[in-house]
Structure formats: C-alpha cells, structure tokens
Write a structure and sequence with these properties.
The chain has helices at 3-22, 28-48, 59-82. The chain is mostly helical. The radius of gyration is 12 Å and the shape is globular.
Length: 83
C-alpha cells in the first residue's frame, strides 16, 4: 500500500476506534497515528490467528484496522490512566 493509503486507512480506523472506545476523538493527528498503529497491531493479531492481515485499501482491511485500533486504544487508555 502507498503511504497516502496508509494515512487514509489510519485516519478512518483511528476515528472509528476512538468513537467506539471513548465516544470522542483524540484529535486528528493522534487518531491517524493510533489508527496506523492499530492497523499494524490488527494485521499482526489476525495473522497470528491464521487470517489475512491488512490487504489493501478495502473494507476487510478497514475492519482489521479498526479491531487493532480498538485493542490499541484500550491499552493506551489503561496505560495513560495508570501514569
């Protein structure tokens, strides 16, 4: 995937993940970063369990990215609360 596609996918996944986890976004830049990290985490976890990871700019990759983003955001909020 191209760099711009990763940013677009990260923005959407981070935004959706933020809305699912805490009902308010973290801010555009942090949503993009968390979404891209979530895409990486989601791809890793899906491959770990035998499914395909992020395959391109499509709905399946968006679902993988959102799942990873939600998992990453829950961990992010737990660490941030503890600090």
């Amino acid at each position: 995937m191209s760099f711009l596609a990763w940013i677009a996918l990260g923005l959407v996944a981070g935004f959706v993940g933020s809305k699912l986890v805490n009902k308010s976004g973290e801010g555009m830049i942090l949503d993009i970063v968390l979404g891209i990290v979530g895409a990486i985490v989601g791809g890793f976890l899906f491959r770990l369990f035998g499914a395909h990871g992020v395959t391109g700019l499509n709905i399946y990759s968006l679902v993988v990215s959102v799942v990873g983003s939600v998992i990453f955001l829950v961990a992010y909020h737990a660490i941030r609360r503890a600090a």
